[in-house]
């Protein structure tokens, strides 16, 4: 069985198969994931992202991001500094926070691949519709948690897996770049692993606070 990309356990079980690929579930952290053999290559992956048309000029996209922006902003001190991880080809959440008085850095492995952002410390880090794309979510999320100042927030937005029957009908698995599917159980495991406090303030939204 493939190794879990979140917790590195080799105790995973077959979960689902569709016309394109297989999915396995880790018995330790409950992550559902796509084994490496079924992942896209870098050029194929970027070709999918290049089709995204997200923009700060789109009020609908701003409303979508508001599900994370609003509860996170309520918890931030004035002038808190943030990083938007996985900002994509049309960074928008960073613009929203800058408009609200929060200096922002952005990082994206394809569109803003500046590793210097990981030399800084932040009051908050956001990753909207990102964690489901990560080949090594355990490594990436631990790195983000390390860049947070004490009391800092990691704000994530991703649709959550529920049960096997719903998973089989789930539109979210149709995107070939989606390879890691988190549940509330998985996020609670992650919070314990990182030594952080977890909240679920809105649909698809997770906030983790560093002590």
From TrEMBL:
Keyword match Transferase: yes
SUPFAM superfamilies registered for this protein in UniProt: S-adenosyl-L-methionine-dependent methyltransferases (SSF53335)
EC number per UniProt: 2.1.1.-
Highest taxon, organism lineage: Bacteria
Alphabetical UniProt keywords: Methyltransferase, Transferase
Gene3D superfamilies xrefs: Vaccinia Virus protein VP39
UniProt enzyme class: transferase
GO terms, biological process: methylation
Molecular function terms from GO: methyltransferase activity
Name of the protein in question: Class I SAM-dependent methyltransferase
Species this chain originates from: Halomonas alkalicola
């Amino acid at each position: 069985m493939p190794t879990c990309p979140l917790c590195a356990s080799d105790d995973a079980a077959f979960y689902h198969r569709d016309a394109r690929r297989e999915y396995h579930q880790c018995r330790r952290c409950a992550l559902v994931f796509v084994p490496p053999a079924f992942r896209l290559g870098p050029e194929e992956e970027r070709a999918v992202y290049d089709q995204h048309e997200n923009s700060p000029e789109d009020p609908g996209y701003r409303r979508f991001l508001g599900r994370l922006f609003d509860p996170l902003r309520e918890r931030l001190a004035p002038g808190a500094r943030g990083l938007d991880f996985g900002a994509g080809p049309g960074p928008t959440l960073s613009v929203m926070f800058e408009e609200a008085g929060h200096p922002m850095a952005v990082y994206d492995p394809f569109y803003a691949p500046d590793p210097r952002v990981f030399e800084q410390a932040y009051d908050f880090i956001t990753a909207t519709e990102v964690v489901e794309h990560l080949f090594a979510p355990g490594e990436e999320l631990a790195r983000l948690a390390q860049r947070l100042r004490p009391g800092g927030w990691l704000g994530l937005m991703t649709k959550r897996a529920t049960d096997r029957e719903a998973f089989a009908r789930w539109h979210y698995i149709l995107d070939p770049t989606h390879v890691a599917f988190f549940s509330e159980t998985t996020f609670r495991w992650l919070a314990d692993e990182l030594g952080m406090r977890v909240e679920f303030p809105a649909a698809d939204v997770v906030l983790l606070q560093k002590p």
